[in-house]
Prior knowledge:
Pfam families: ABC_tran. One of its GO terms (biological process) is monosaccharide transmembrane transport. This is Sugar ABC transporter ATP-binding protein. By secondary structure, the chain is α/β, with parallel strands linked by helices. The chain folds into 3 domains: about 5-240, Rossmann fold (3-Layer(aba) Sandwich); about 260-335 and about 420-510, 3-Layer(aba) Sandwich (Rossmann fold), CATH 3.40.50; about 345-420, no CATH class. It has 18 helices and 24 strands. Helix 14 (about 375-390) crosses helix 15 (about 405-415). The chain starts with 9 loop residues before the first strand and ends in a 6-residue tail after the last helix.
Amino acid sequence: MSVSASSAVLAVSGIGKTYAQPVLTGIDLTLMRGEVLALTGENGAGKSTLSKIIGGLVTPTTGHMQFHGQEYRPGSRAQAEALGIRMVMQELNLLPTLSVAENLFLDNLPSNGGWISRKRLRSAAIEAMAQVGLDAIDPDTLVGELGIGHQQMVEIARNLIGDCHVLILDEPTAMLTAREVEMLFEQISRLQARGVAIIYISHRLEELARVAQRIAVLRDGHLVCVEPMANYNSEQLVNLMVGRELGEHIDLGPRQIGAAALTVSGLSRADKVLDVSFTVRAGEIFGISGLIGAGRTELLRLIFGADAADSGTVALGFPAQVVSIRSPADAVAHGIALITEDRKGEGLLLTQSISANIALGNMPEISRGGVVNPSAETALAQRQIDAMRIRSSSPTQLVGELSGGNQQKVVIGRWLERECSVLMFDEPTRGIDVGAKFDIYALLGDLTRQGKALVVVSSDLRELMLICDRIGVLSAGRLVETFERDSWSQDDLLAAAFAGYQKRDALLNEAAPRDLP
Length: 517
């Protein structure tokens, strides 16, 4: 494709951004009408910063932009959106206490005589939700009651309403099911046909090959490639992104799987988790697979004491000793850690430094008489920055200035300073680039060699198949099957993920009243 600045919908020239240090330098890029431009690179490479500059959330330090040939200097996200430049970010821009319909049309609620027209609002919301496959959800449902995957689809639907010329999608499929991904790709095709230009940010290279015409690769804040997508395969793109070769397989090193470390028996809560039992051994990685809404996160929250179970027990060690876990504090006291999927909402203080965030769970290590020792706090943070390869200017850098992958490393680093025998990871590599993923996989291997028992929830089946010793599949709240390494396939895992829903639907159909002749 021949691209010229004069015919571009959007053109950026010499764009740079400096915080404590440069994060973007001299970016020149154009975006054409009706094309999908893939934007990829390691976490910390500058992808989110560049997209936020285009979307009006961040002001560039250097350079300028043009939109339809006119100077473009948005002072806010609202100004960018008014021009038709929309951005779906990893950090969802939704209000959990409002309904789906209200979130979709918050800036343009239909009214009648000064009152909100609920009928028109509901009708418009149903139409917007149908575009992204949310037909089964009541538009009056509070957003806070939805899982994070469905919230992501609501955010996408919100940004497709109205006149859209440029759409930026930042890791849009990270928490979506296969069906929702297909719905998104169908919508992308429709948008292209309407002439909408799309910047598609993702680390899932197979998706980029499917949807994008060109690819732009960032590395350490520099643009190292802008080429037709067809010119590169996944291996070549990875090498461009990380500046080194990565294999398709991972060797977690010599490990010895020991006796049971965690035993879950008959754990249940309402209709979310139903009579779930499993055992995880010391030195083992036990994966949990399933569709969005299957109860994966809810199960981890029950084990961790974040939610109260209706029935069932959690036991530690061998022979198993049942422990009372009524709160996360109880779980931590018993040596159980949970690295949550929502790192921003539940895992981090974004306005605080790296050192303060890592210190949060380790106050006895760095304080005396209730007073924090600054040098001890800094040393603690630096140890994890080095161990986790966290890209930062110093331990004092604010966590909110880090990329998503580096923020996740801060969360993990905090727990690694504690003596936990059981560590549960909920989507540990969500939104993390391929290079950082392998860093975290290696870390998981290190933990198992220390005799830790690991539970890993992931939406990426290939990830689970790569790192796990066993995989349990949740379906409609039940653990329907557990697979041993070398006895699973992707098809088998997917079939099990749907099995519980098929069984549940069959039982509901049998129980449904039948019309008499």
